[in-house]
Design brief:
It contains 3 helices and no strands. By secondary structure, it is an all-alpha fold. The protein has one domain. Helix 2 (about 25-45) packs antiparallel against helix 3 (about 50-75). The radius of gyration is 14 Å and the shape is elongated. The termini are far apart. GO terms for molecular function: NADH dehydrogenase (ubiquinone) activity. It catalyses: a ubiquinone + NADH + 5 H(+)(in) = a ubiquinol + NAD(+) + 4 H(+)(out). Keywords: Electron transport, Membrane, Mitochondrion, NAD, Respiratory chain, Translocase, Transmembrane, Transmembrane helix, Transport.
Length: about 80
């Protein structure tokens, strides 16, 4: 459990770095999904499976909406 928590923490930090270091929304969403999976894995290892499921649904929905909006703005010609 300790190694799993350490791995999830490292994935959480790595995902945050990916989001912060990439100017394109296509790669930023990969970092957000990595943070999402790491956070849910961390909660699941603590025994909070319902909270992890709610976190997954809400955060994934927000990520999808922000990704679609940022891709639409990045593809704008003006």
């Amino acid at each position: 459990v300790t190694y799993f928590s350490l791995a999830m923490g490292m994935c959480f930090v790595l995902g945050g770095l990916v989001v912060g270091s990439n100017p394109l929304p296509y790669y930023g969403v990969v970092g957000l999904v990595l943070v999402l999976v790491a956070g849910c894995g961390w909660l699941m290892s603590s025994g909070l499976s319902f909270v992890a499921l709610v976190f997954l649904m809400v955060y994934l929905g927000g990520t999808l909406v922000s990704f679609v909006d940022s891709v639409a703005l990045a593809a704008d010609l003006f």
